[in-house]
Specification:
Rossmann fold, Vcp-like ATPase, Chain A, domain 2, 6 helices, alpha/beta, 263 residues, 7-stranded mixed beta sheet
Length: 263
């Protein structure tokens, strides 16, 4: 998204003096109400991102375009989202790049799908399996609200991925499922040899079970990691870790599909 002038339909993040963040979609004639006053949308439309505006009560707010990370943390949720601290490593561990054909399950609130769509670009394609209609509806709306449209390279299929897939040319597969080992018989033939599967899992027993299942299904180079993120307070000579940090959210288990031994 280019940092041109803010326009109707754009998402804007207002940040106050205490670093509280408010995400708003601009619309002509509308206003945003908060405890320090009112901001008329028309007073923001046409301004450059990064400008400081005032509420009717005189308080200053910084107005910027939300990053994907900002949006994921603020967007409406139908299901728990994967946090930004894990989404970045997912892209790296699965080695997802522009133009790839990626399979995902499930859609949830759309955080992972948005991240994958950005990584594969307009030349890539994403197929997502989701079992629940309500999750699919929420996730697709969140995706469209952030991108400003429904991406034509994203196909959502309502159903259980364990029942089988009808393609066999995926470069990468990313699973956000409680029991991804159950999907391996269905998805393994659809992943190209040398391709990577990545599973997001919240508990240690799940990690243990999926690692054994991956090995049983011909995968190698299995790696399990946990990402911890700790912010630091830096103000003058006061440099220390923040009192709160984002600890455990989930484990990332990645593996490559092996092609077998050559005689």
């Amino acid at each position: 998204m280019a940092d041109d002038l803010m326009a109707p339909g754009d998402l804007v993040m207002f940040i106050d003096s205490k670093q509280r963040r408010y995400m708003v979609k601009l619309a002509e004639g509308h206003s945003f109400h908060l405890h320090t006053g009112i901001i008329e949308h028309d007073s923001v439309i046409g301004l450059e991102p990064g400008v400081t505006v005032r509420t009717s009560g005189g308080s200053r707010l910084l107005a910027v375009r939300p990053t994907l990370s900002d949006y994921i943390l603020k967007m409406p949720r139908g299901a728990q989202v994967i946090y930004p601290k894990d989404l970045g490593p997912i892209i790296m561990l699965a080695d997802i790049e522009p133009g790839m054909r990626v399979l995902e399950a499930g859609l949830g609130s759309g955080a992972l799908s948005l991240t994958l769509l950005r990584a594969i670009g307009s030349e890539g394609s994403l197929v997502t399996y989701e079992m629940r209609d309500d999750h699919a509806a929420r996730g697709l709306k969140n995706i469209a609200d952030f991108l400003g449209c429904t991406p034509i390279n994203h196909e959502v299929r309502i159903g259980d991925i364990c029942d089988g897939i009808d393609s066999n040319d995926f470069d990468r597969i990313v699973l956000d499922l409680p029991d991804p080992w159950g999907a391996l018989p269905a998805i393994t033939p659809g992943l190209r040899p040398g391709g990577i599967v990545l599973c997001y899992l919240p508990t240690v027993p799940q990690v243990s079970q999926v690692v054994e299942a991956l090995r049983d299904h011909g995968f190698g180079m299995v790696e399990s990691v946990e990402i911890l993120a700790r912010s630091w307070h830096v103000e003058g000579m006061s440099v220390r870790p923040e009192h709160r940090m984002v600890g455990h959210t989930g484990f990332l288990v990645s593996a490559r599909r092996l092609a077998g031994e050559v005689d």
